[in-house]
Design goal:
433 residues, alpha+beta, 13 helices, 22 strands, binds adenosine monophosphate, binds glycine
Amino acid sequence: MPDSHVLFVIGGGGREHALIWHLAKAYPSASIYCAPGNPGIATLATCLPVPAADLAGLADAAASVNADLTIVGPEAPLVAGVVDVFEAHGLRILGPSAAAARIEGSKVFAKDLMRRHMIPTADHVAFDDPQSAMAYARNLRAPSVIKANGLTAGKGVILCGDAGEATRAVQAIMVDRVYGEAGRRVVIEERLEGDEVSVFALVDGEATCLLPVAQDHKRALDGDRGPNTGGMGAVAPYPLDVAMLDRVRRDVVERVASAMCAEGAPYRGVLFAGLMLTRDGPRVLEFNCRLGDPEAQVLMPLLSAGLPDAFETLRAGRTRPEEYAPVDGAAVGVVLASRGYPERPETGLEMDGLEDAADDALVFHSGTATRDGRLVTAGGRVLTVVGRGRDTGAARTAAYRAAAKITFDGVHFRRDIGARVPGVVTVARGERH
Ligand code: AMP
Ligand code: GLY
């Protein structure tokens, strides 16, 4: 991609801040715009006040700044069809169409796709009516997971140890509607055991290329306790042995890319597979149609080439990169959250220490705003502080040194991000799916 291009990014969180930081570094002469952006993004890009839900407004904005390429951060505009809208206006955009984004937008679509194409995943049953779901849950003899179908920002999932917990979860999701309309339909799954990782692939039709493997930390508290959140921190790379990585590539990423082509909805963009690395090999927990947050904050600093260029290479079918070679080293990202997150986060609190923290680490803004010229908190996840180092240990030290310098009333973060990265994760049993 020529350096002087105009790039337009949709979104306004830590993921988009990291993406824009990466683009600014890879293309130093590019003009970068972002809608709606945030105060951190505004230091690197021109922010335009268009909400990510206003698809026609976004297309107008991209056209008015003569964007050469638009990159979409969050899932909601993708699921709503922003790529289709842009393409109908003749605008170049990187991301899956609405038909392809169903892989995230509908858990039932994703599970049926996996079943049809033999992509390894947990066994599941879907229910539309609470009575049948309740009857099924009452008879469960093994640990299960109850999920609301539809978008719930990663929160509509309840892990259950026995039938009693499962029936209470069905009641909460389908009857009490604790996740709103997303709970009209539930998916009940077998509960898998193993290490959980986030795998990202660049996909263009049948062509795929893996990014370094990352791990998110979804629970609110140290030791994976407390409620599920959007993600409290991430680490990359996460070491998989050759056999496990090979399974991930062949049985999951390549198979799903082919499956989407076969279904008439070829996938184009970043595909995110949430995987459980079980003793039998990888099993898919979920697919997302975008980069992860906070995974993007640790992946972007590791990339050795600009993302748009990597997509061009993939699309042109030139060198088919087996893997998008990372630079040396590791990154650890710690999310600084507000008091009350994830249930009732406090907002509007003044923050200090960001400049000092930037001596040791990258500071990406997730939920911040400015008020009378001062930076204040504006969301549950406020900042992601990313340390880099030659290994995970050095990256953790840098991240935590920086995190300790940032203060706002009620700030809290996990102390164990990246603390349990193993030597390598291997497949224990040999059978193939
Ligand atoms: P999801 O939004 O479907 O990725 O689920 C959120 C979290 O619930 C995942 O990150 C896992 O930690 C957990 N989870 C989901 N499905 C399962 C499963 N079948 N077995 C064990 N844990 C699961
Ligand atoms: N970190 C998980 C997600 O972005 O969905």
